[in-house]
Amino acid sequence: MNLLPIFIALPLLGAFILSLIRQKRVGDVLANLINLSLFIISLLLLRYGNLVYKIGGWQPVNGIPIGIYWVKDGLSTLMLVIVNFVALLSTIFSINYMERFTDKNRYYCLFLLMLLGMNGVILAGDMFNLFVFLEISAIASYSLVAFGTESEELEAAFKYQVMGTIASSFILFGIALLYSLTGTLNMADMASVIHNASFNIHNGKFLIFVCGLFIAGFGMKGAIMPFHAWLPDAHPSAPAPISAMLSGVLIKVLGIYTISRVIFNIFGLTPMLSNLLMVLGSLSIIAGAILAIGQNDFKRLLAYSSISQVGYIILGLGLGTPLGILGGLLHLLNHSVFKSLLFLNSGAVEYATDNRDLRKMGGLNKKMPVTGTTNFIASMSIAGVPPFNGFWSKLLIILACILTGHFWFAIWAIIGSIITLAYYLKVQKYAFFGTLKKEWEKIKEVPNFMRLSMIILAILCTIMGLLLIPQLREIFLSPGVEVLRNGLQYINNLGL
Amino acid sequence: MSEIVRTVSKVFSPLIFLFGMYITIHGHLTPGGGFAGGIILAGAIILGILANGSGETRLLYKKNLSSVSEFSGILLFLVLASLGLVISGMFFFNFIGKGISFTIFSAGIIPLCNIGIAFEVGGAVSTIVLMLILFRKEEK
Amino acid sequence: MIIKWIYVLPIILFLIALLGVLVKRNLIKIIISLTIMEYATFLFFALIGYRKGGMPPIEVEGVKSTIFVDPLPQALVLTAIVIGLATTSLLVAIAVRIYQKYGTFDIEKIKKLKG
Fold first, then answer.
1. Searching chain A, which residue's CA lies closest to the CA of residue C14?
2. CATH number of the domain that C86 lies in?
3. A99: Cβ contacts below 8 Å, ≥ 6 apart
4. Least crowded by CB within 10 Å, which of A270, A428, B35, C31?
5. What's the total number of domains in chain A?
6. Which subunits have 3 or more CB–CB pairs within 8 Å of chain C?
7. Considering the domain boundaries, does residue A177 fall inside one?
8. Structural domain harbouring C55
């Protein structure tokens, strides 16, 4: 029970100590130790059920919660495990990769602040805490995108920041309207007020307006079409481990997790909202895939592919049936794993050859076998080839679409999957297979820690399909599915 | 800047600093508290810089001081929160006695938290302004 | 719920500032429009807490009053102002460095990233 504040206190302490230290080795060891301990604690939390942590010990008065609550339920535990795991692997990778930049300790400080913000968003039990931690992690990520201070990175960071600030203003406007309608900020209390019978008659139209504001605001943070315009500029310009964190976990925690909390647990899933989410999801799938084929820059292609895969997750979650939600959550886990592996691969290629243009590369498989093999495994997983993990989650989403009768959405999903296979084969052909160009004769394989991160992620890609076995599914996935399926059970958290 | 501006700023800078400390310490009795008090503290330092010009070594010394002040503000806040965790098992628990209402030494850990936040915000705003001035100077 | 006409004013300010972000070409004007947009949201949030005939929510010794204005939006707006300060300072720092690299503040000329 007392383990929950460690997720916020430990990165905060680490970040502020790291901004004072000058030596590089101490900074490496400290940051990796903090991430490793956070990951182990998040695995330990899998054993407990729902926990509610009242800060300062303020007990409810007359049944009205007056304190700040931190709530850990099935969905939060799953997100905590995946966020801390990808963060651990990114810091291991950046021991070697960030040697080229000048101030490595400041980098670790900003990284830990971003991780702190994401942990806070996952654990938050009331709306304003969610907003404050969302802003902390967003501001840390704006500075990390601009870390190299070349001209392209600064332009991308400016664009990213302007759109992110507009999104935060929309979210704050929505929170203000919701507070004036319900009179409370606690999410469970808000849900119980909204689902009173007399509330909808007076305030139904305002609730639809607030829902629209939230989907616009959180959708801009999570790069859902048509709010995706910052992502193809911001993700390629960041250093490679930061791209892995941004694409792998940040757009999911700030976009998808918050949308599911607000829509499933506070408003309740109506048919209109479900249709809206499914339409936005399929639009993301097709538009992201079509825009990705024409790209020649390795990381820009991966960024458009992120937009496409987030569309799959929104499509799965928007269906509302247990099979669809299971498919959506499994695809969320899978995409974190293989997209971070792909971005770490592109970082390794850039470390060795100092170049991101696909047309200039060729035949890298002979000189960099580890990078080539892991890239092959990740490309096959994301395209949905059995028996890698992408196949199982896409199969579940398409099956769930067909079983509820939405045939057109299933067809869009299948077309998207075929186009995904096409452009990843393009990457493989241009970059790794083929003849070795003369200028790449002298490159070597990347150093040890980078290889370690990529191998761990590749092993996970192959075995994560086993998460669908009933014993493992009960531990990891079923609590999360249960929280989203019976959205209104969130109100029971008031009694704990 | 002319002689009049420099002399007047020498008189007023300590007064503004004192006013910032007053707003911080009475944070639990009157409006204000940590944030507002901290920004007034930063205002006092910025007034000194604007009036007296920017010799580079003086600015570097001030920047190190404000960075250390920012760090120690956050550390004080975190230590108070964790002490609550250690003493009675809840983060941010109010473990100092509540005292008589409407006096300064009341309301538990809240005045100490206000002082920590004031150092943090004052140090942060001063550091930002000083770094922007230093950046323009070193690129010339 | 009856629409109180006082709430229309922050909404108009928000829309004018949003128009400014979309239309203006100078980087500094975009930053100023973003700041105005955030402050319009804070004004809206603080106006929500008003109660008719209410006193400021501070307990003064010896005065017993029962109707106080809602203090929760005021505390939240204070936090959000500090967040807005951090955002603005980061934007200004990035804009200063963009001027050093590109030599101009015009967004029509800062277009190296394409596709």
1. A169
2. 1.10.287.3510
3. none
4. A270
5. 1
6. A, B
7. yes
8. 5-102
